[in-house]
């Protein structure tokens, strides 16, 4: 099931990549941020569940606007390193804010999801896990439809293809990029919320999860939404296999490196991933 | 821009880095004052900052050659510093080698590891390469953490202080002179390396790799060489860092430290050896000030104490990088050059 979480994070990355061509390294921090904001709404302010959702979306929209205005717009036309570093800068600022505002150790959400288990063909699955899995799948289906069949999805694909060309067709590139950031941040927030339900709120742990979701993006192929889904699953499965089968030979800890080993292998053998366009610049 | 009245009569003069007699005097007096006065007068804290800056400069020079000159992104530079540090530690602690013998081995070991992880660079570039170097960081750190007694694992690895005959380097002041000697050597090496045939080939690869290949530069070997040289510098920094820390632990080589190295280059300016000095000196000094400041602040407001130093550091890092990327992408080095030429031209506008 860890694969579903990677998939969700990978989706957040792919969304931004598809619409603005920026690889967002800060996705782990977005998830953590969403987790904390949700907790702050639910526990510190005590608002009911639907209101909390609305609050999360408002925060996501504000954050997206701020990022697009403050960080992304000045960097149009800069080299790729600048784009990487600006998201790293964003990641550090968010991580710092999280520690400053919510110091200390783990926090726990009030139980909102059903917590029972049931047997499914002899495999015990907790209802909570299943629900998370279903939400992930639903989100994926929604986004595939969104990108293929709606006007805004089409416009976003145009923007990712060529910003100048899109602009000359009368598309307002900056606002499209804002919308993409909003969607990506909202997805990350929702992901964070579910993670918070399951594991409690733990900022650094979530951020590390974010780092481990990059392999999922690369494995699946950078521009592909189904790729993000399958890549996430593959990385999750390889991680579990690593823990199960390799750990006893190498003194443990495979969970931390297995995604990165997969990443290196994919980058050496098939850099465009399973479903990505083969347009990667070869040297 | 050179000072007024400097003319080249021989080829050597045209190639010289230090061009005028006045500059030579300034350089020697400056180094002499720094070593003699700063090294003798300053207390523990000032020496500590200077030593950290020195070690960081050596590693950052390597990254500058890789990123600033050859254009290959690496966001796992600290891992190669760790390789150098742990090689030194293992050789001196387990095998009892003298430090000076372990130093070249550490440099070579680090360079070899760097070349191995540079292999993906042959097929990919841009942020694919960034991700693969990030993977390199986590894999190397994992190997060190799970190396058992050989690397000390989670318990850390003690490193004995270096000895030169009867002289034992174990105080901040003694380390200051050792580190500064290496900083001078490495700067000399880097500054000259980037203007040799090799350095110019690196620049050609950075600017346009297809054109570079067309001109007869072997891209494969040059990229691997750039990774090797960068990791070699990192290894040298690690070899100095190991005895300076005295006890190696994995936490000292965290991923965020690798990101700081990119930060030094962005603030200092890409593609300039002087820029490394600006970036590292300004940021490391500010880092130390934040550490001191935040512990003071935590003393005043106890509620903020847990992790405030790390949090402020992160916010500071992010803000500085973002501001430089947005407002001064060319870095402090560019500002320094414009300031120099405007002083030389004064009182004329251009």
Description:
The complex is a heterodimer of chains A (283) and B (350). Helices cover 72% and strands 3% of the residues of chain A. Chain A has a two-stranded antiparallel sheet. Chain A has one domain (2-218). Chain A is built from 12 helices and 2 strands, in the order ααααββαααααααα. Chain A has 283 residues and is mainly alpha-helical. In chain A, α1 packs across α6 and α1 (2-20) packs antiparallel against α8. By secondary structure, chain B is mostly helical. Chain B has one domain (19-345): ABC transporter involved in vitamin B12 uptake, BtuC. Chain B has 14 helices and 4 strands. Chain B has helices spanning 11-15, 21-41, 44-69, 77-93, 99-118, 127-145, 172-193, 197-207, 209-214, 219-245, 255-268, 273-300, 308-327, 331-345, and strands spanning 157-158, 163-164, 167-168, 247-248. In chain B, strands 1-4 form a two-stranded antiparallel sheet. Chain B has a two-stranded antiparallel ribbon with strand order 2-3. Chain B is globular and about 60 Å long. At the A-B interface, α4, α10 and α12 of A face α6, α11 and α13 of B.
């Amino acid at each position: 099931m860890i694969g579903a979480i990677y998939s969700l994070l990978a989706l957040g990355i792919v969304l931004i990549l598809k619409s603005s061509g920026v690889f967002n390294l800060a996705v782990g921090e977005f998830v953590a941020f969403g987790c904390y904001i949700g907790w702050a709404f639910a526990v510190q302010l005590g608002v009911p569940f639907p209101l909390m959702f609305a609050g999360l979306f408002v925060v996501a929209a504000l954050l997206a606007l701020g990022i697009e205005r403050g960080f992304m717009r000045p960097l149009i036309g800069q080299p790729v390193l600048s784009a990487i570093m600006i998201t790293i800068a964003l990641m550090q600022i968010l991580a710092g804010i999280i520690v400053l505002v919510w110091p200390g150790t783990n926090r726990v959400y009030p139980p909102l999801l059903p917590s029972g288990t049931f047997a499914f063909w002899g495999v015990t699955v907790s209802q909570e896990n299943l629900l998370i899995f279903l939400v992930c799948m639903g989100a994926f289906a929604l986004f595939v439809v969104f990108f293929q069949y709606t006007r805004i999805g089409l416009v976003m694909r145009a923007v990712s293809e060529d910003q100048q060309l899109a602009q000359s067709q009368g598309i307002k590139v900056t606002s499209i990029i804002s919308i993409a950031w909003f969607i990506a941040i909202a997805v990350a927030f929702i992901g964070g919320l579910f993670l918070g339900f399951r594991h409690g709120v733990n900022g650094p742990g979530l951020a590390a999860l974010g780092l481990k979701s990059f392999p999922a993006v690369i494995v699946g192929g950078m521009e592909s939404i189904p790729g993000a889904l399958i890549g996430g699953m593959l990385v999750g499965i390889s991680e579990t296999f690593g823990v199960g089968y390799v750990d006893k030979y190498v003194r443990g800890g495979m969970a931390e490196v297995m995604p990165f080993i997969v990443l290196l292998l994919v980058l050496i053998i098939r850099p465009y991933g399973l479903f990505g366009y083969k347009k990667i610049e070869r040297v | 821009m050179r000072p007024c009245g400097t003319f080249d009569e021989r080829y050597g003069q045209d190639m010289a880095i230090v061009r005028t007699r006045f500059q030579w005097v300034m350089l020697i007096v400056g180094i002499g004052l720094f070593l003699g006065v700063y090294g003798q007068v300053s207390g523990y804290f000032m020496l500590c900052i200077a030593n950290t800056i020195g070690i960081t400069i050596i590693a950052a020079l390597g990254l500058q050659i890789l990123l600033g000159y050859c254009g290959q992104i690496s966001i796992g530079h600290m891992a190669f510093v760790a390789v150098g540090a742990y090689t030194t530690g293992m050789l001196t602690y387990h095998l009892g080698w003298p430090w000076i013998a372990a130093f070249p081995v550490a440099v070579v070991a680090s360079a070899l590891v760097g070349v191995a992880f540079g292999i993906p660079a042959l097929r990919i570039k841009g942020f694919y390469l960034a991700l693969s170097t990030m993977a390199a960081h986590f894999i190397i750190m994992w190997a060190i953490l799970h190396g058992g007694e050989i690397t000390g694992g989670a318990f850390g690895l003690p490193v004995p202080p270096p000895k030169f005959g009867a002289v034992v380097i174990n105080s901040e002041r003694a380390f200051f002179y050792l580190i500064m000697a290496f900083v001078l050597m490495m700067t000399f090496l880097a500054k000259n390396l980037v203007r040799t045939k090799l350095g110019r080939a690196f620049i050609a690869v950075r600017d346009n790799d297809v054109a570079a290949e067309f001109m007869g530069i072997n891209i494969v070997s040059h990229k691997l060489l750039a990774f090797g040289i960068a990791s070699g510098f990192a290894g040298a920094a690690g070899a100095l860092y190991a005895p300076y820390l005295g006890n190696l632990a994995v936490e000292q080589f965290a991923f965020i430290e690798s990101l700081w190295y990119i930060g030094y280059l962005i603030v200092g300016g890409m593609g300039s050896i002087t820029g490394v000095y600006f970036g590292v000196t300004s940021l490391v000094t500010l880092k130390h000030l934040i550490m001191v400041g935040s512990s003071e602040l935590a003393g005043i407001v106890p509620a903020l104490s847990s992790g405030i130093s790390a949090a402020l550091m992160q916010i500071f890092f992010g803000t500085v990088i973002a501001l430089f990327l947005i407002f001064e992408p060319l870095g402090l080095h560019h500002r320094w050059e414009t300031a120099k030429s405007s002083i030389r031209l004064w009182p004329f506008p251009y």
